[in-house]
Amino acid sequence: MQIPVERAEAFYLPPPSEPAEAWALVPPAERVFRWVELRQQRRITPPDGFLIGQRLYARINHNRWVADCPCGSAQVVTPVDPRFACTECGYGWVTLIFPVDVDAAEASVAEELPHLRNWWHSDDPDPWGHPPSDAPADPATESTAEPAREVPQ
Ligand SMILES: [Zn+2]
After folding, report:
1. How many domains is the chain partitioned into structurally?
2. Could you tell me the residue range of the domain that residue 116 belongs to?
3. Distance CA 58, CA 80 (A)
4. Which region ranges are annotated with the description Disordered (predicted)?
5. 74 CA from centroid of ligand 1 (Å)
6. Is residue 146 part of a domain?
7. Using CA atoms in the order 46, 51, 54, 58, what is the torsion angle rounded to 10 degrees?
8. Rounded to the nearest whole angstrom, what is the distance from the C-alpha of residue 92 to the centroid of ligand 1?
9. Which of 74, 116, 121, 145 is most enclosed, with most CB atoms within 10 A?
């Protein structure tokens, strides 16, 4: 069975003590606020209105659709409700940019193990984590010589 790329509506779910459909009437982009409230035991109000002209690119990170807030926080998002508001700093709402063909982006990573499934939008001018920080550095910029050791006198 294929493991699907996870989206907000499948990630931010009510606690087991509530019926599975308890948040069914909450728009998928807003469920993160319920989820964070539940886990942090504090009231968080989604922002009012939209930040005109502000947009964020969605990406696939370890098999989840995510978007990165300028504050450094990130959350799971969904192409079904492509909006973002940050539960940490209050940024938002902004429009999310998903690929035109979401299915093709998901299919492009489907052969990888879920934790290796990463994808970045080709138009994103500043793709977070791309290339991955654990990628080998450009060998042309690395010195191959061993640094000289100081010998104690
Ligand atoms: Zn933020």
Report:
1. 1
2. 8-12+26-132
3. 12
4. 121-153
5. 7
6. no
7. 20
8. 8
9. 74
